[in-house]
């Protein structure tokens, strides 16, 4: 993360409003728009921010489909083939990137059919959801949240990264998830998500975020 970047404190409400304005501006000029909300699972609440965008975007005239990367993880037999606590496997192989691109993001290319599969794999029951595809109307937006999303070639019109300092990440990760810390360290070192993202939000204090300027 660049030490020269400037951040301004912002309320959560104002953050949601500014993001909704930016997404709506994008969506006004495209058939469909894809937004990624990226951050460490269980440490940054990507789900809450993604959910909070739904109503403001609808008020601004854009239908929204919420998708979670957690519903596009690989089956347990593949995720846990080398044990349940392997950070390299979590980093490299937990997410079914090809399925996410094929079923969600690819169909929303300008020439796509606009038919999206909202969820693929139920990790609780470890079986397919078997849902029908959803047709996103023109002007619609898909908001996808999850972890370790950037640097994988996932197409999107806007990528938001919720950034935590290493100390805050360690502090906010539950004890039973701290084994994943090396995966997040690799992500920061190899992908540099704060440099790839269009929007970066510092979340060391989730009640008092700070938005990168510029």
Topology:
Blueprint: E1 7-9, H1 12-27, E2 32-38, H2 46-52, H3 54-59, E3 64-68, H4 76-79, H5 87-93, H6 97-105, E4 115-116, E5 121-122, E6 127-128, E7 134-135, E8 140-146, E9 158-163, H7 166-172, H8 181-191, H9 193-196, E10 199-202, E11 210-212
Parallel strand pairs: 2-8, 2-9, 3-8, 9-10
Antiparallel strand pairs: 1-11, 4-7, 5-6, 10-11
Provide key terms for this protein.
214 residues, alpha/beta, Rossmann fold, seven-stranded mixed sheet, 20% strand, globular
* CATH evolutionary superfamily: P-loop containing nucleotide triphosphate hydrolases
Please report which band the strand proportion falls in: under 5%, 5-15%, 15-25%, 25-35%, 35-45% or over 45%.
15-25%
Task: State the shape.
Answer: globular
CATH fold field value: Rossmann fold
Organism: Saccharomonospora glauca K62
Protein name: Uridine kinase
InterPro entries: P-loop_NTPase
Describe this structure in words.
The chain has helices spanning 12-27, 46-52, 54-59, 76-79, 87-93, 97-105, 166-172, 181-191, 193-196, and strands spanning 7-9, 32-38, 64-68, 115-116, 121-122, 127-128, 134-135, 140-146, 158-163, 199-202, 210-212. By secondary structure, it is of the alpha/beta class. The strands form 3 sheets. A 7-stranded mixed β-sheet has the order 1-11-10-9-2-8-3. It has a two-stranded antiparallel sheet with strand order 4-7. The model has no long low-confidence stretch (mean pLDDT 95). The chain is built from 9 helices and 11 strands. Helix content is 33%, strand content 20%. It has a single domain (7-199), classed as Rossmann fold (3-Layer(aba) Sandwich). The longest helix is centred in the first third of the chain and has 16 residues, at 12-27. The two termini are 14 Å apart. A hairpin with a 7-residue loop joins β10 and β11. α5 crosses α8 (181-191).
